[in-house]
Write a structure and sequence with these properties.
This protein is α+β, with helices and mostly antiparallel strands and 301 residues long. Helix content is 20%, strand content 26%. The strands form 4 sheets. An 8-stranded mixed beta sheet has the order 1-2-3-14-6-16-5-4, covered by helices on one side. The chain has a 3-stranded antiparallel beta sheet with strand order 13-7-15. A hairpin with a 6-residue loop joins β10 (203-205) and β11. The structure holds 2-oxoglutaric acid and fe (ii) ion. Fe (ii) ion binds next to loops.
Length: 301
Amino acid sequence: MDEPRTPAANDAARIHATPSAAPIGAQVHGVDLALPLGDAAFERILDLFHRHAVIVLRGQRLTPAQLVAFSARFGPLDVHHMTEHVFPELPQVRVLSNAKQKDGSTAGITRGGMHWHSDLSYKPVTALATLLYGLECPAEGADTEFASTTAAWAALPEEAKARLAGLTAVHDRNFRYSALYPNRAPLTPEQVAGVPPAVHPLVVEHPATRQPALFVAKDVVSHVVGMDAAPSRVLIDELEAFITRPEFVHVHRWQAGDLVVWDNRCLLHRATPYAFDRDVRTLWRTQVKGSAPRAPAIASA
Ligand SMILES: O=C(O)CCC(=O)C(=O)O
Ligand SMILES: [Fe+2]
């Protein structure tokens, strides 16, 4: 149920978190984003975001403008390169929804992100945070799963760290697009050319926490630079399988009113299926711009 709406909401000293059992994920208490949020309260939330990588604020009642205002506290917002299903007056907010409209089309983007990924990893400048606000959430399925790339890196044997440090990999939105999105129109040559591949370190350093993390996903990374195709594919597939082991994964089960903020710099995430033809799922989404991923100064640290 909702947090009690007491005058103490947004008092920095009372904002606290209940961590999940996984290395990432925490529910944050004491925040009501419909009320004013001072700088000290936001600093507290930012600290919890850096500590837990996925923070969940339950029982929120937000307008699109309030979602944008809170999102923009984390940094400048992105307007996604796929421009359909945004609010015309507020293009920073994208609608994810399978709700059917009168003309038979859906009210939002459907079936997105059902493979492990980090948002915009295929761009030179990747996404810092993504905020997803649940308006209508099915009782079964439609979870969002998060895997800690920091915890996975830390758990690797030293010889694997030494082998991986210094490698770079090619992230390519076009690599498996048609296989991942069989329900969408194929990309036009202009769309393909508009999002060319980007090369990033395989091990990245978090700009705020300085913690090293793996940066790879099998359906987005086409190859490791300088490796032959076959061993490169084996390595990429193995690394994703390792990162997404159950001990590194936090599963978010949605309730209407949940606002989830995740840090794309230290985790992979994916959407999971639900009874698409029976249940309605509607969320609003914003995305905070990041920076070009960088390798740690000592990549095996
Ligand atoms: O729908 C979801 O659960 C997550 C979709 C996703 O990957 C995203 O919004 O970035
Ligand atoms: Fe995503």
